[in-house]
Amino acid sequence: MKINEVEQSIGMTKKNIRFYEQEGLLTPSRSPGNGYRDYSTKDLETLRQIKLLRKLGISIEDIKKLQNDSLTLEDCLKQHLIALEQERKNLEAVTKFCRRLLATDATLKSMPAEQLLTDMENMEEGGTRFMGAKNRNEKEEESMSSFAIVFLVAIILPAVVTAFIIGRRSAPMDQMSQNAVLYSFYESGDFFYNLNGDVYEPENQVRTHWYGHAADSSLLAYWLYEEDSSYPSGIRSDLYYITGDLEPVKVAESVREYMVSYDGSYIAYFQSFENNTHSDLYLYEVSSGESTKIDEDIGGSFFCLSPNGKIIAYQKDFYGTLYIGGLDMEISKVAEDDITPLGVVPLAVSDDGEHLYYIHNRGLYYYNYNEKDSVEVASNIDPNGILAYRFCFNRDISELLYVVNFETYYYAPDLDTPIKIVDDRIYHVLENSTAADEYSCSTYAGIARVDTFKNHVLQSSGYGHQLYWLNENATNTVAISADARYSMLSADGRSLLYLEDGILYRLDSFGEEMKPTVVCEKTDIQYFTANSDLSKVYISTARDLYYVKNREETEQLSDNLAYAEFEEYGYYEYYPVYDNTSGKIYFLEDGALYAADKNETSKNKVAENATQLALLPGGISYLCNEDEQAVRYYLHNGNAIKIYTE
Q1: Coil, strand, or helix at residue 591?
Q2: Which residues make Cβ contacts (< 8 Å) with residue 553, sequence separation at least 6?
Q3: How far is CA 454 from the centre of its chain?
Q4: What is the pTM of this model?
Q5: Contact 369, 332 (CB under 8 A)
C-alpha cells in the first residue's frame, strides 16, 4: 500500500507517517523498481497503535519502549494516569478512558486499537479533546513530552494562536522585536500581521502550523502549497519568507525541508522536484536573495544549521552518513553509518564549524572540524529515545546541557569528561528580558539566548518546574525551588521571583547558600507579575488583584478578575499582564479592560467588551467584541491599533 492510501485509511498525514518512520517506530519495505515505500497490513496496525497512544498523550520515547518490550502497556498507562490526574477537570474524560483501557489487562499486541479509535472519535464529537484530535495541529515533530503543556496552550489561546504569546505569560517581552512578523492560524488557512495593523493573507492556503523563525522573530519562513499535476499528491510545497513589512519573498520551489538561521540572515533548504526522493541542498542569503548550492543527491532526513547560517551539517544518504559544509567551507565527511536506523544524527554546529555535536550508535560525539577528529562525550545516549530540546546549547555552541536517565550533564570541549550537575532533567535556561526562548537549531537541539550557562538559573522539565542555579565553574547546581508554579528573572538576571505553595519568594543573590525572602504576608497566591527589574510586583489571590507595597501592606486593585468560559475546556482565568513600555498593569474585570499603576485611584477603563488579554512586544494585545465581530487590538504607548478582525 502506498503512502497516499495509508493517509486516507488511517487518517494520518503523510508528514506524520514519515516522522514516525524516521523515529524508528515502523520500517516499511520499499518497491524494488522505484524505491517507493510499500506499507503492509502490519504497518497499518502499527500506525493505528501509534495514533491511539499519541491521542492519549503517550510520548514517542514511551512508544518505542513499548515496542521493544522495555515497558509494558500496563506500566505505561499507570505512569500516564499519574500525569493525567494532575490536569484540569476537563481532562477527566481522558483519564476515564485510560482507566478503562488499563482495566482490560491488554498488551500492546492484544489492544483493540481500531475499536478504541472509534470510541475516541465518538468522544471527540461530544467535546472530549485527545492528543492530535480533529482540527488541531497534529505536528509530531514538536515531540512535547508533557500532555499538560499541550493542554495549557490549547486553553490559553483557544481561537487564535499568536506566535509570541505562547509560553511567555510572566517574562518580559522587550527582547522581542517590534518589527516581528506574527501569525494566526485557522482551519481555512493562516495569515500574517504586524504591530502596525497591517495584515497579509496568502491567496493559497498555508497548510502548515510550523514556521521557521529567526531568534528575534524579525523573519519567518513558511511553506505555501501550490497545485502541480506532476506530483502524485497534486500539490507542491514552495518556500517563502516574510518580515515585519509583510512583503512575502519566494525563496524556492519544491522545498522538502528548511531552517532559518539564528540571526535570520540565511535560510537552508532542501529542494526536490517531481517525485525524486533525493534533494539538493542550498543556503539562501536573505540580503542578496541569492542561493548557493552546497551539495546534491541528498537522501538523509536530519540536519543542523549554525547560528549565522553559513555552516550546515547534514545526513548525506538514507543510512545517515554525516557531512559538514557551507559557504567558504569544503564539504567534509564527519562519520559514516550503514547499519543504525537513524544513522549519524547532527545536533548543533558553531559559526566557524569548529564545534559540531552529533549522536551515533548510542553515543554523543564532539567533532572538531579543524583537527578532523571526533571525541566521544557519552556512550549511553539512545538515539531511538531522544526528544526535541533534549540537548541545549549556549549561543556559540561552546557549552552543552544534555540528559541521560533523568540526570543532567554539562559539557564543554575543554573538559576531559562531562560533569553531572543534577539528578533531574534540565533542558532550559530560565528566561529574562535578554534571554528569549530556545531557538531550534536541529530536530533534537535548541540554542539558549545566553553566552554561558554558568551562573545562570536553570529550569527542569516535566511537572513541578524545579529551579536550580548553576555555579560559576559549572561543577554543581544548587536547588532553589522544588515546585515553582511561576518564576521570573529581572532584566539583569540578578534577582528572581518565584511562586511556591501559594507563597511568593524573592532572591537577590545567587550562590552556594541562598536565602530567599518572602515578598508579602499574603498566602494562597495564585499568580504574580512584575516589571522588568522586579521593583513593582503584583499578585492575585483567586479573583483579587493587589499591588505589593511592602511585605506588610498591599493595595487592592480589583476584587473581580475576569474568568472566561469555554464549552470545550471549562473555566480559565485571564491573568493580568504588566507592560514595561507604559509602566502599567492591565487586567480584565466585569467584561472590560482596565489599567492601573500602584493604587486604586490610578485605575482606569481602557476598553469595553474585552477578552483574551496577552503581552506583546512593546505593549499588550486584547480582543474586543464589536458588532458581533472579534477585533484584535494592540495597545502601544496609549494608542489602540486595530490589528485584524477575526
Answers
A1: coil
A2: none
A3: 24
A4: 0.71
A5: yes
